[in-house]
Design goal:
The protein is of the alpha+beta class. The chain has helices at about 15-20, 50-60; strands at about 1-5, 30-35, 40-50, 65, 70, 75. The chain has two helices and six strands. The two termini are about 25 Å apart.
Length: about 80
C-alpha cells in the first residue's frame, strides 16, 4: 500500500522517513519529493508498505503527530492519472 506523507520538515531525508515508518512494519520504499530546479524538499513524500494492516496502523500512528513542530498528514496515496 502506498502512503502519501505531507507536512514534513525540510531537514527530513528519505532514510528518516523510512525509519519513522518501520516502527509499524516493513517498508518497501520511502522517498521525498523535491524541487527539480533547486533539489530542495517539497516537505512531502511517499512510503510504500507491502502489508495493508501495517500501512493502516502507520496512518493512524503518524497522522496529526508533530515532527519538529510540524503536524504530519498521512493518507493512502491516490492513483496518479496518466495523460
Amino acid at each position: 500500500m502506498r502512503l502519501f506523507v505531507g507536512g514534513l520538515p525540510r531537514r527530513v531525508r528519505s532514510v528518516d522517513l523510512r525509519e519513522a515508518f518501520q516502527q509499524w512494519g516493513a517498508v518497501k520504499d520511502a522517498y521525498l519529493l523535491t524541487n527539480r530546479e533547486t533539489g530542495e524538499s517539497r516537505c512531502c513524500g511517499f512510503v510504500e508498505m507491502p502489508n495493508e494492516a501495517e500501512a493502516l496502523a502507520a496512518i493512524r500512528g503518524v497522522y496529526g503527530q508533530l515532527w519538529d513542530d510540524r503536524e504530519i498528514n498521512c493518507q493512502i496515496a491516490r492513483e496518479r492519472k496518466r495523460a
